[in-house]
Amino acid sequence: MILEEQTCVVTGASRGIGRGIATELGSNGANVVVNYRSSESEAHEVVDEIEAAGGRAIAVQADVADFDAVASMGEATHDAFGAPDVLVNNAGLTIDKTFANMTREDWDRVMDVNLGGVYNCTKVFFEDLKDADEGRLINISSVVGQQGNYGQANYATTKSGLFGFTRTIALEMARSGSTANCVAPGFVETDMLEVVPDRVQEKIIERIPLGRFATVDDVSGIVRFLASKESSYMTGQILGVNGGMEW
Ligand code: NAP
Predict the structure, then answer these.
(1) Which among 10, 11, 15 is the best mutation to test ligand 1's pocket, defined by most ligand atoms within 8 Å of the CB?
(2) What's 7-186+216-239's CATH class?
(3) Residue to probe by mutation, ligand 1, list 39, 47, 190, 196, most atoms within 8 Å of CB
(4) What is the CB neighbour count within 10 angstroms for residue 164?
(5) Per-domain residue ranges for the chain?
(6) For 210-243, what is each residue's pLDDT tens digit?
(7) Atom of ligand 1 at shortest distance to CA of 159?
């Protein structure tokens, strides 16, 4: 129970990687705020799963791109568990198109969620993380932010942006003994990968030295480590979890 008495907010925790992170943190003793935007029943399943394992959790609806909604999530978090110790900025989406076909709307929505959401959530919980006994900010980026990827100019830009954000916030949090780190997964078996055509998936696998996609568990274990006191002397780092892909 290495996260006993810790409160963790996980954005985009109704499905995929965020769901895996929420259940992993919950099963290690944390109180978990399970944020979601539209998948209400899935978010409640995550809460049930954490409670069935003996933990405590609440589901909170908020579009991370909406500052007022995130501020309300901040209030709900304080009401349920007090100030959080850990924020995992995981919520993200793709709108894939070649740049020639990408509209300003496609660009803006991905910016608003993947970077605007990170601003909103970090802003709302920033003082809590600094005041915590070793607060933790963990941003979920992507190998795509390191390598770029055909048809993902908007998404890759947001995921690269998290590197500069993480390193800067790490400096601004350091005096308080809190840390900020970034996890850059490779290609992970979730709904996000499901929409990639099979022939493209086969080509991607050829580029992965370990010869397989990541599972959600491959990523959630790293986040559990970063959330724990075991990572006390790591800050401003980018951890690749990508099966050995070069960047
Ligand atoms: P996913 O299966 O599509 O799940 C996305 C999650 O984010 C859902 O819980 C969704 O909630 C939530 N979400 C989306 N927009 C939101 C918003 N505006 N406000 C709040 N929640 C929102 O995606 P995933 O594969 O787990 O990806 C999770 C993170 O890992 C993303 O940041 C992604 O960029 C990153 N990542 C994924 C991969 C991959 O290969 N899958 C690789 C590297 C990095 P609702 O369903 O409730 O809307």
Answers:
(1) 15
(2) alpha beta
(3) 190
(4) 10
(5) 7-186+216-239
(6) 999 999 999 999 999 999 999 999 999 999 999 9
(7) 34
